Amino acid sequence: MFLALLTLGIQSSPFRDVATEMKLSLGNEQACFIDLDQDGWTDLVSSGVAWRNDQGKGFTKVAEGLGNVIAADYDNDGFPDLFSWSQVRLYHSEAGKKFVPKELPALPPTSSRGACWGDFDNDGFVDLYIGGFEDWERQITFPSYILFNKGGSRFETRWSSNNYRTRGVTACDFNRDGAVDIYASNYRLQPNQLWLNQRGEFKDVANDFNAVATSAGFGGGHSIGAAWADFDNDGEFDLFAGNFAHVDSRGDQPKSRFLRNMGQSQGYKFDDKGTCGIFYQESYASPVVGDFDNDGLTDLFFTTVYGVASFGKPNFPVLYHNEGLFKFVDTTKPNGLSDLPPTYQAAVADIQNNGHLSLVSGGRLFVAPQSSRHWLEVRLHGDGKTVNRSAIGAQVRIRLRDKTLTRQVEAGTGEGNQNDLKLHFGLGNYRGKVNLEIIWPGGRRQSLRNLKMDKIVDVTFPK
């Protein structure tokens, strides 16, 4: 009886698949949530198809053939553009209705599994980090590189690295110095990289900061994707590193693990917390995080590569509920998510503007049941001069009694997916007004006080 009650975790009723009733015909490839036409409703690009959200009631196809994308407004014209990492092609948005290929500089041959946007030189325009993967048959490692945005009109390559075979990439100013850093998930038992941003130059500090995400006897893991989140509500961005892990002749290969950010007093180094309840499956793939039950704790959804792995062992995507203090419990079955196929697709957004997250995975769109718990959502807008229009890299914190809820605007997570740029905060049973602290890209701070709960707040970078 105790175990049955414990596994209910997130909801007393299951997630509901609404893809058919919302007229979505989804593929099973990576997904990007983004408000393409800036009408206040989050749209979806998945498996190369762009879908317009019709005010939370359904979706309409607006474009196709785009590949797997991440999105940000690179020219600050007010409409998010698309970068297809699978095609290595940039698409300029024409008011969210049409996407026109944009010429990029000559690039080295590459094969990519993911990319991320970030204003890495703090000039007000988002740049682009492209992860380089491999040609397995020819044993070629493709370079990862950054395209620096020159005023929204062109890009130039000024930095590259071809040490390792990268799959997922995701960015965060984890040490709060005003410069966005990059975490690269590397495959083939190669160490993950934490690229510390030093005024647009990058140094790999993963080993120094204990962020390699490996275990004794191995230099690295088979990492596929990682996700930034403040899992313990201490105001600092932690990491979850997702590792595919065979049984190796030297023992078990490095498993997926949580890396806790120790904060300023410890030089923002990470404490490797291990699995924290994430049970072993060989073929874990792309993670995504979000507070699915609005209890104020960030939960984890984790996909798998195979339906059946080595030795005939079934593998399946899992929803883990955050119980606090880095304890995670499997709540997949009671939440109606136990029959999902193998997939790399995992992204979250509030598609109905009602304060509850939806999940896209396995070619299906799930809406979480509504609860009585409170929430707040924040849409940040840059001025297009000092801060990029999409506000990529901005952080928001809400302090509630003995905890701090922390979110960031990011464009790239897991392996090649993207969550909604609108930030979602579950407030649990908290009652009262809410205060926000915003750290904009570059480090400028802004405070908003006495905000009402259960609403969406729009904030523009102050002049």
Shape: globular
Mean pLDDT: 95
Helix content: under 10%
Helices, by number, come to 1
Distance separating the two termini: 58 Å
- Rg calculated over all Cα atoms: 20 Å
How would a crystallographer describe the biggest sheet? 4 strands, antiparallel
Summarize this structure briefly.
The protein is mainly beta and 463 residues long. It has one helix at residues 2-8, and strands at residues 16-17, 31-34, 43-46, 49-53, 59-63, 69-72, 81-84, 89-94, 98-102, 115-118, 127-130, 134-135, 140-141, 144-150, 154-161, 166-172, 181-186, 193-198, 201-204, 222-229, 238-244, 247-248, 251-252, 257-261, 270-274, 284-290, 299-304, 318-324, 327-330, 347-349, 358-361, 364-367, 374-381, 395-400, 403-408, 423-428, 434-439, 445-451, 456-460.
3D architecture notes:
It contains 1 helix and 39 strands. By secondary structure, the chain is mostly beta strands. The protein has one helix spanning 2-8; strands at 16-17, 31-34, 43-46, 49-53, 59-63, 69-72, 81-84, 89-94, 98-102, 115-118, 127-130, 134-135, 140-141, 144-150, 154-161, 166-172, 181-186, 193-198, 201-204, 222-229, 238-244, 247-248, 251-252, 257-261, 270-274, 284-290, 299-304, 318-324, 327-330, 347-349, 358-361, 364-367, 374-381, 395-400, 403-408, 423-428, 434-439, 445-451, 456-460. It is globular. The termini are far apart.
Produce the secondary structure layout.
Layout: H1 2-8, E1 16-17, E2 31-34, E3 43-46, E4 49-53, E5 59-63, E6 69-72, E7 81-84, E8 89-94, E9 98-102, E10 115-118, E11 127-130, E12 134-135, E13 140-141, E14 144-150, E15 154-161, E16 166-172, E17 181-186, E18 193-198, E19 201-204, E20 222-229, E21 238-244, E22 247-248, E23 251-252, E24 257-261, E25 270-274, E26 284-290, E27 299-304, E28 318-324, E29 327-330, E30 347-349, E31 358-361, E32 364-367, E33 374-381, E34 395-400, E35 403-408, E36 423-428, E37 434-439, E38 445-451, E39 456-460
Parallel strand pairs: 33-39
Antiparallel strand pairs: 1-32, 2-3, 3-4, 4-5, 6-7, 7-8, 8-9, 10-11, 11-14, 12-13, 14-15, 16-17, 17-18, 18-19, 20-21, 21-24, 22-23, 24-25, 26-27, 27-28, 28-29, 30-31, 31-32, 33-36, 34-35, 34-37, 37-38
